[in-house]
Specification:
The complex is a heterodimer of chains A (117) and B (113). By secondary structure, chain A is mainly β. Chain A contains no helices and twelve strands. The chains are: A mainly beta (117), B mainly beta (113). At the A-B interface, β5 and β6 of A face β5 and β10 of B.
């Protein structure tokens, strides 16, 4: 069965500092990987996704993530954060091209990013 | 504007009552999903539907029911059998393949009094 581990439940960081939010997954099949952001009391919005090809994926709001198959990781990074990046970030995996229920997303428990002035 | 709407935003229920949460999308997506979100737990899948008149249980379907009579609509009923229904409920839709982005509604916060 697939699973997703977000190693940090909370990450405090100062404005303009770099940040990395860690995500590891377990799966015996090819996977697709996603990062979503959730602002307080709102739904989720896609930041970026990895389907195939280049392992470095660029998303919205200056975020990027790198797929590392050997380490089964998909860490999210931003070189310089803003106050407005304060939110909860979710890593998710789906079961790759096999489709059906394997296409459903499995979410990590989330990482709360708190950007301080 | 295309998107997903959920109503109401806040909902209060007395113990023992059934309550229905609305989810509507105008994105022409085939697949729709219901998730439950609890603090520190991430999102857990309740039910999903890949086509009209068909739906499947997710990981935590007990105490919930759904219908999919129209492509645009996927209402969720929280029944009195759900032991701990207080949570934030999120509806999503996608084009039904595993590569497609799921688009989320704004959520409904249900509180049982």
């Amino acid at each position: 069965a697939q699973s997703v581990t977000q190693l940090d439940s909370q990450v405090p960081v100062f404005e303009e500092a770099p940040v990395e939010l860690r995500c590891n997954y377990s799966s015996s099949v090819s996977v697709y990987l996603f990062w979503y952001v959730q602002y307080p009391n709102q739904g989720l919005q896609l930041l970026l996704k990895y389907l195939s090809g280049s392992t470095l994926v660029k998303g919205i709001n200056g975020f990027e993530a790198e797929f590392n198959k050997s380490q089964t990781s998909f860490h999210l990074r931003k070189p310089s954060v803003h106050i407005s990046d304060t939110a909860e970030y979710f890593c998710a995996v789906s079961g790759g091209p096999s489709g059906g229920s394997q296409g459903n997303l499995i979410f990590g428990k989330g990482t709360k990013l708190s950007v301080k002035p | 504007d295309g998107g997903i709407t959920q109503s109401p935003k806040y909902l209060f229920r007395k113990e023992g009552q059934n309550v229905t949460l609305s989810c509507e999308q105008n994105l022409n997506h085939d697949a729709m999903y219901w998730y439950r979100q609890d603090p520190g737990q991430g999102l857990r899948l309740i039910y999903y539907s890949q086509i009209v008149n068909d739906f499947q249980k997710g990981d935590i379907a007990e105490g919930y029911s759904v219908s999919r009579e129209k492509k645009e609509s996927f209402p969720l009923t929280v029944t009195s059998a759900q032991k701990n229904p207080t949570a934030f409920y999120l509806c999503a839709s996608s084009k039904a393949t595993s590569t497609d982005t799921q688009y989320f509604g704004p959520g409904t916060r249900l509180t049982v009094l």
